[in-house]
Amino acid sequence: MSKRDYYEILGVAKGASADEIKKGYRQKAKELHPDRNSDNPDAEAQFKEANEAYEVLKDADKKAAYDRYGHAAFEGGMGGARQGGYGGQGDFASAFSDVFDDLFGDFMGGRGGGRQRATRGSDLRYNLRISLEDAFKGMQKTINVPTSVGCTSCSGSGAVGGAEPDTCPTCSGMGKVRAQQGFFTVERTCPTCSGLGQIIKNPCQTCNGAGRVEKDRSLSVNIPAGVETGTRIRLAGEGEAGMRGGPTGDLYIFIEVEDHKLFQRDGNALFCRVPVSVASAALGGDIEVPTIDGGRSRVKIPAGSQSGRQMRLRGKGMPALRGGSAGDMFIELAVETPVNLTSRQKEILREFDKLSENNNPESSSFFSSVKNFWDSMKS
């Protein structure tokens, strides 16, 4: 049976360019691959036929011979013939590898995707605890960070004297090696260079070829006013040094604001719980309260104040992190019951209690509701 025309097999016109031929083969390889045509018994034969056509037409000399003599160019000693023809597995590997990256480039990382002559350093995290006062004012803080820095002995190259690394002989600098398994070409990381594409024949004695060494660094960090727990500050280029001269990673400072003995924070608002005596709450008056800036403010207590009552001090809270007006401070009253009373104090309180039957509206309302509840249960 006569062979089909190679151009017809790939679906391209005679005289097609190399790119058109490659594109045609790529489409046919996808269309006819046996794994996609398990229900078509002829798929494998057609796939090999497309491979044979591409093996000839991709080569300029073979293509010229085919254009002139047709299939006869590769039969009976016309030159260019190979033992076993062009349909063998070895030729499939050669042809298919040319479009392997086009078909699976996104999945495998593309041709040469494993080459990483210089790798970026890792980002680092530093947890910093500060006081509420420091969060209010902002501060300049010096921290010590254990990290990797570029080796000065080899200028980060990893080789003695800063020499350039040599191309890996196993993968020719690709960082990956290929192996043929049936119809597929499988890529894996080069075992000689671990995917770097380069090897160092004379490693630097200081860093053992890594191009970096471990060292503690002192850094000055600007903590802006208004930070709160969870705030993240990024210091670009202050992370771990890259391998073999690669770019440096970043350092991230995570802020944790400590609890305060006097103030509780909620966003930009501050709360301060202030105990007051029964007499002060009943009669009213002025009290002096602290503020987060270290100052003092006088607050007027209305007569008859109950526990939990709040008074607002505008602008006395935490500053906004990215500008804007400061938050407010809230004073919460806690009416304190006296303890360790003297006999005279107890006597006065008993007398006061007798005289204040009509001065406790909340108690009167509560016990009136209790009486109604009990009466309803009886009926």
From TrEMBL:
Organism: Parasulfitobacter algicola
Subunit structure and binding partners: Homodimer.
Gene3D superfamilies named among the record's database cross-references: DnaJ domain (1.10.287.110), Heat shock protein DnaJ, cysteine-rich domain (2.10.230.10), Urease metallochaperone UreE, N-terminal domain (2.60.260.20)
Family of the protein in this entry: Belongs to the DnaJ family.
UniProt cofactor note: Binds 2 Zn(2+) ions per monomer.
Domain (CR-type) ranges: 138-216
InterPro entries: DnaJ, DnaJ_C, DnaJ_domain, DnaJ_domain_CS, HSP40/DnaJ_pept-bd, HSP_DnaJ_Cys-rich_dom, HSP_DnaJ_Cys-rich_dom_sf, J_dom_sf
UniProt comment concerning the protein's domains: The J domain is necessary and sufficient to stimulate DnaK ATPase activity. Zinc center 1 plays an important role in the autonomous, DnaK-independent chaperone activity of DnaJ. Zinc center 2 is essential for interaction with DnaK and for DnaJ activity.
Residues where Zn(2+) 1 binds: 151, 154, 204, 207
Compartments where located: Cytoplasm
Zinc finger (CR-type): 138-216
PANTHER family: CHAPERONE PROTEIN DNAJ (PTHR43096:SF48), DNAJ HOMOLOG 1, MITOCHONDRIAL-RELATED (PTHR43096)
Gene responsible for this protein: dnaJ
Top-level lineage group: Bacteria
Entry keyword Zinc-finger: yes
Function (record text): Participates actively in the response to hyperosmotic and heat shock by preventing the aggregation of stress-denatured proteins and by disaggregating proteins, also in an autonomous, DnaK-independent fashion. Unfolded proteins bind initially to DnaJ; upon interaction with the DnaJ-bound protein, DnaK hydrolyzes its bound ATP, resulting in the formation of a stable complex. GrpE releases ADP from DnaK; ATP binding to DnaK triggers the release of the substrate protein, thus completing the reaction cycle.
A Pfam family that the UniProt record links to this protein: DnaJ
Full protein name: Chaperone protein DnaJ
Principal location: cytoplasm
Cofactor(s), names only, from the UniProt record: Zn(2+)
Residue ranges of every copy of the J domain listed in the record: 5-70
